[in-house]
Each structure stands twice: as C-alpha cells, then as structure tokens.
Design goal:
alpha+beta; about 60% strand; 8 strands
C-alpha cells in the first residue's frame, strides 16, 4: 500500500511540474505584473451638500505617495446619513499628469459632539492614464474630518499593481 501511495504522489508531483512548465513557458512575460506597496499622506477640503437622507461630497486634496510623488486628488462621494456608509469615486493626478482612478466604499463615525468624524475607505484601483492605464490593486484610506471646517487629514496604505 505504501508503494501505491508513493507512486500516486509521484504522479501528482509530475503533473504539477508539467503544468508549471507550460504556465511559465506560455505566459506572456512582456505583461508581467508588478505589485508594490502604495502608501501616502493626504490633506483636503470637502464641500458637502445635504439632500436628506443623503450627503453629497465634492472634494479636493493634495498629498505625497509612493509611485505618485506629489499629487492632487479629487473625489465625489455619497454618504447615507442614516448608516454613515459611503460610496463614490476618486482621481489621483501625479505631477507628470498620469492619473489613477479608484472606486470607493467606506464608513464614517462621528465623535460625541459631532464636530469631527473618523472615516475609513476602501479604494479599489480601476486603471488610469499613462503608466497607470491598466493598474489594479486596493488600499485603505483613513482620515479625520473636521465637521466644522470640512478639512480632512489622513493617510492610505495598500498595494498598487502595474500591468
């Protein structure tokens, strides 16, 4: 019985080796993906418009990030004021004009006196322009929002995949 088990395992390993060989041989190496950490700091200003039960946010921000350097960002969000859930989109523009597009979902939590909120967003990278044309990846943006001045400050951390 031990001999049969060893033979079965050997056949499985051989099949895996053949599959790996064909995968490596026939993969288009010119389209190798490059995954890298994507981190940055960001400050901005939000302009809210309330149409209860929704809050619409138009915002601009600036920051500094790996793979972007100094950048500008614009984003449009819709916030459900009853659940504090957020959805929308963002555009990051690097100094050379290359843009990175993201889809955003998140959630905000207000402090006790409703003068500040902590917002956590998940950004899913959906391509862009220039070297980001086929980019993918995700990152988490966490920031504080002053509910009196509408100023934001925070950071993000995740992975950027360049194709």
């Amino acid at each position: 019985m031990n001999l049969r088990l060893n033979r079965f395992i050997s056949l499985q390993l051989a099949a895996l080796a053949v599959a790996a060989f064909f995968t490596i041989t026939f993969t288009d190496s010119s389209r190798a993906d490059t995954a890298a950490p994507f981190r940055g700091a960001i400050r901005g200003m939000e302009i809210p418009t309330v149409e209860f039960p929704l809050l619409f946010v138009d915002a601009t921000a600036t920051g500094n990030a790996s793979h972007l350097g100094r950048f500008g960002m614009t984003y449009d969000l819709t916030v459900d004021l009853q659940t504090h859930d957020t959805s929308g989109s963002a555009v990051f523009t690097g100094a050379n004009g290359d843009q990175l597009f993201t889809d955003v979902v998140g959630h905000g939590t207000s402090n006790g006196d409703h003068t500040a909120a902590l917002v956590v967003e998940i950004h899913t990278i959906a391509g862009g322009t220039g070297r980001f044309a086929e980019a993918t990846g995700t990152f988490i943006r966490t920031y504080s929002l002053d509910l009196v001045t509408n100023v934001t400050a925070g950071s993000f951390d995740g992975t950027l995949v360049l194709h």
